[in-house]
Amino acid sequence: MNGSFKVRDDSLADLSNDVRLAVDTGKVSLGYREVIKAVNTNSAKVVVVAENGKKSVIDDINHICKIAGIKLVSFKGGSLELGTVCGKPYSVNSLAIIEEGNSKIVAEEY
To answer: Of 13, 21, 80, 22, which Cα lies nearest the Cα of 46?
Structure first.
């Protein structure tokens, strides 16, 4: 991936926990269109993308996050796994953290 991704291989469990906490106690937007809206309205604090997402989608999200100065985190897992972490019975290729709730996802480096 490229330079704006901040990833440590041992951080999948930490990232998964923080994503789940944000979903349960904060406010998130799921999916490409919602992520784009959240970034364009400056309401996103962090964007998380599944590692196996379409390259064009990841590149688009990376580009708009870079322009907007929003932290982008690569989830070392697939979209089905990210959906499971979010408590959804479907795949989630990307999500925007609007309010982190009890999560430390905004402050942490992954």
So the answer is: 22
